[in-house]
Amino acid sequence: MIDPRWNTFLVLCETMNYTRAAERLCLTQPAVTHHIHHLEEHYGCRLFSYEGKVLRLTEAGQRLRDMTRSMVYNSAQVAQAMAAPAPVSLRVGASKTVGEYVIAPQVERFLQSHPEATFSLEVDSTERLLQQLEAGELDFALVEGFFDRERYEAHLYRKEEFFGICPPDHPWAGRSVPLEELGRERLILREPGSGTRAIFEQALQRNNRTLQGFSGVAAISDFSVIKSLVARGLGVSFLYAPVVEQELAQGKLARFDLADAPMSGAFYFVCLKGNMFLKDWLEWIE
Q1: Does residue 84 lie in a domain region?
Q2: pTM of the predicted protein model
Q3: pLDDT at position 102
Q4: Domain stops at, among 79, 99, 115
Q5: Where is the domain boundary, 79, 114, 137?
């Protein structure tokens, strides 16, 4: 069983406000303060500090937060496993590329082999999925783009090509295009926080550029809308190969690459550090 003071600590990490933490926990504010002081005395270090009136986690507090999240998650999973009866339960997160174009075979295999299982698949941006993982709302996530690997247990899931797309009759079709030429076209990209957008923005940064240097940028979260707009000549985009595989084969879209900003991407399995079920989850995605 988990010490309730750890739960108080995690809620305060989330709210960063003693009053709001007390309200969420149905405790008095002095009780929340007492729980935190107890942990600080026990571990011999400060977990929080104030910068003016703003509450901040100390470096020690950040380490304890990361470890405590794993312990709370593992405790909940053990309690579920010991329950009678104990049906299999799995909560998976996937970034949109993975969720819509990659993961279906694994989901089908899991549901066929576990007909009584409780299963959920949350498809969202990489940023949002990592927030849900830290909140204990997901068992693991399959994400794209960039994230702080020091904070999570991360394993390579698969690598994928990443390139530009345009109409098949576009002058760039099949070409290697200099970065300077991109300013001639509207860029149709995923929304901020998505792994797909992050890959492209990182390529720009490696060439000392940002999206602010482009006059026409449209942010759209739906892949089908992006592909439709590009096919109709309303702009160009940058996506992973699985997203446009069918359209490329049918001749509805064409590929182009950036001559001075080569891009590639990868999908990663991510869970909390110290996850007791890591081996089982890794076997699930193979």
Answers
A1: no
A2: 0.70
A3: 92
A4: 79
A5: 79
CATH of residue 147's domain is: 3.40.190.10
Residues 6+ apart with CB under 8 A from 52: none
The ranges of the chain with pLDDT < 70 are: 1-2, 77-87
Three-state DSSP state, 228: helix
Please count the structural domains in the chain: 3
Contacts of 183 (CB under 8 A, 6+ apart): 213, 214, 215
Give the containing element (helix H, strand E) for 142. strand 140-144
What does the pLDDT look like over 204-234, one tens digit per residue?
888 888 888 787 899 999 999 999 999 999 9
Rounded to the nearest angstrom, the gap between the alpha carbon of residue 36 and the centroid of all alpha carbons in its chain is: 30
Written as one string, the DSSP assignment of 72-128 is: HHHHHHHHHHHSSS---EEEEEEEHHHHHHTSHHHHHHHHHH-TT-EEEEEEE-HHH
Across 145-163, b (16+ Cβ under 10 Å) vs e yields: bebeeebbbbeebeebebb
